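Report of the visiting student (M.T.), summer placement. My assignment was to run the structure pipeline on a short list of targets and document each run. The first record concerns Heparan sulfate 2-O-sulfotransferase 1.
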Amino acid sequence: MGLLRIMMPPKLQLLAVVAFAVAMLFLENQIQNLEESRSKLERAIARHEVREIEQRHTMDGPRQEAALDEEEDMVIIYNRVPKTASTSFTNIAYDLCAKNKYHVLHINTTKNNPVMSLQDQVRFVKNITSWKEMKPGFYHGHVSYLDFAKFGVKKKPIYINVIRDPIERLVSYYYFLRFGDDYRPGLRRRKQGDKKTFDECVAEGGSDCAPEKLWLQIPFFCGHSSECWNVGSRWAMDQAKYNLINEYFLVGVTEELEDFIMLLEAALPRFFRGATELYRTGKKSHLRKTTEKKLPTKQTIAKLQQSDIWKMENEFYEFALEQFQFIRAHAVREKDGDLYILAQNFFYEKIYPKSN
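After the run finished, the C-alpha cells were exported:
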C-alpha cells in the first residue's frame, strides 16, 4: 500500500499558522498577567507580614532602648549591582535568617531605579535607623550608595557589595534581557524575541551593548550625586573608590564569591554563621543562570576595551579586586588547596594599673 498523505490547502495552512501565532501571543500575555498578579500578591503579603510583626511587638510591650545590644542593633545593606551573582548570595541570607534570628527585607524600587528621590531617601534612612522591630536586619536591593551621615544619623548601617568583571557583567545582562534565566523561566523579558548575539550587537554599534552600558558599578558605589551618573566622570570613579574603602565593610567579586562569604561568616557570624557550608553544599550556590548566553569573541572584547568607559570601569574593578585580595590574604591561610580562617592573632598584655 502506498503511503497515505493528507495535504492541507494553502489557505488552511496559513490560517493554522495565524491561529497558532495568536494562541502563542495570548498565552504570553496571560503569563505576563499572571506574573504581574504574582508581584502584586507578593507586595500585599509583604505589607501584611510587616503589620503582623509590628502588632506582635506592640502586644509584647514597648521595647526599651537598652534591650538592643550592639549585635541586635545591627543593620546590613547590600546595595546589589545587577548581574553580579547577587541573587545567589541573597538567597543564602534568606536561608539563614530564621536560624540566625534576623530579618531580611528587599528594597523594591519602582522600575529598579537605583536613585531615590530626596523624600524617599529621608523615609529610607528613618526606616533603617528607627525600625527596631526589623533589627537585626539585612536589606538588599538595586539601590546606589546612600550616605547616612548627611541625614544626621549617629549609627550608620554596614554596607557590603559584590562586583564583577565589567564586560562579563554586561554580556550577562544583555542575554538576560532577551532570554531570562532558570530562576523564573516563564517570565517575559523586555527584549524577548531579539535573537541578535552580543557579538553582532557590538559589530553593528547597537545601543544595548554600547560602552555607555558598562557604566554601572562606579555610579552604584559613587551614590546619589548627579555627577555619579555622568558617564565617564573621573570624579565619580574617585568617589566610588573612596566609598569602597571608607564606607563599605567588605566588597567581594563574583569570581571569588565563596571567599567573600567565608570572610563575612568569620567577621559577622551574627548574620552569616553557616553561610560557607550552605554555599558549598546547598542547591542555591548557582541558583540563577542566564539562559542562551554566548561568550563574546576576542574581537568583540578588544573593541569594547578601546573605550575610555571600559578603562574606568575596569580600573575600578581591579581596584576592588586588589582590596578584596589584600583583606583575604590577612584573614585566611591555604592548606592542601583549601582556605582556612585565621584564629585571633592578637592579645592584650601589660595591663595597668594592677588590681589588688
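The first strand starts at residue 75 and ends at 78. The first helix runs from residue 10 to 59. I thank the supervising group for their guidance throughout the placement.
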